[in-house]
Amino acid sequence: MRFPSLASRKAAQAARVGVPDRTSQLAGLAVVLAVGVTAGCDGGGDRTPGVIASSTAASTRSGTPDLGAPEELAQGLDVPWGLAFLPDGDALVAERDTSRVLRLTPGGGPPRQAYEVPGVVPGGEGGLLGLAVSPRFTEDNLVYAYFTAERDNRIVRFRLSGGSPEVIFEGIAKAGNHNGGRIAFGPDGMLYAGTGDAAETPRSQDPASPNGKILRLTPDGAPAPGNPTPGSPVYSLGHRNVQGLAWDATGRLFATEFGQNDLDEVNRIVAGNNYGWPEVEGEGDTNGGQYTNPIVTWPVSDASPSGLAIAGNTAYVAALRGERLWTIPLIGDRAGKPSAQLKERYGRLRTVQIAPDGALWLTTSNTDGRGDVEEGDDRILRFPAH
Fold this sequence. Notes:
The chain is mostly beta strands.
């Protein structure tokens, strides 16, 4: 398998001057992570190594989205997947199967094409997936995308003004399903990526594989400083298929995860923790506290949780198979009782994000081959904050 091209170049350079290369660093990763998780990583206090400050930007808004006041911003889209906001309030939307990045101005008419990502090979659940806007966009004008290529899943960055994208991380195994795909910049300025096991479950417990993980990278694609193991991009492991990432106002990371036959999950993510897949699905800390329990589970028929956003003390989870938006009170490291909203009103829901003005944006996913397509699908909805 191949890790980030940029990081590999740096490792090769380091080797020439006598610094241990990436292979030797990864060789010890399993031992280090095993020590971390068996030492009692139970999802309590944040074990993030180094300084993980939330001073760069707030990751959540304090307003409450009005779910009774929907505004349809766009319709007729082809499997909208990634959604990210530019500093001016415009949104960028990735269409999974067309490779197009669309730009949408609220109240400014239909979306228009802003970029087309070359090298995307859609198929099954793969294609052009997550988007993220650089925290320094006003200076560097960079947009990041996670997509399925001919041989792998990878992360690139590009400018909307044109030019070829730069591959910053590659070698994430691909499959017809379980490709992960969500990327987001955290309040620490690092790039986080949720990956799937690509239908090979042992990868999730293999610390040398980027699959079945949450990765934490620098904006250049190298393993971020302060990761659980120096030189490794792995932030947490034991995931089946992560497709939602969001932070609360205190900088704590949460993620959604697809279960297999029984239980879908929302997890509170702590650096170095093991979330159990494929050994457990749902709760599984009975094995000496080795695995971290989710804070919320649902039967898979009620959820298939994709996008995740947090506003104030409430998490919003877009459900595909469940065809509803779940709202979850966050109470410290625990969660209150989830409540189903918009049930079977818009069909499959893929992505949910909080806009700079506090409004909640929601994308449907009825044209993805598994939904019942209605006139106007797929669409983007906006719910204003009050």
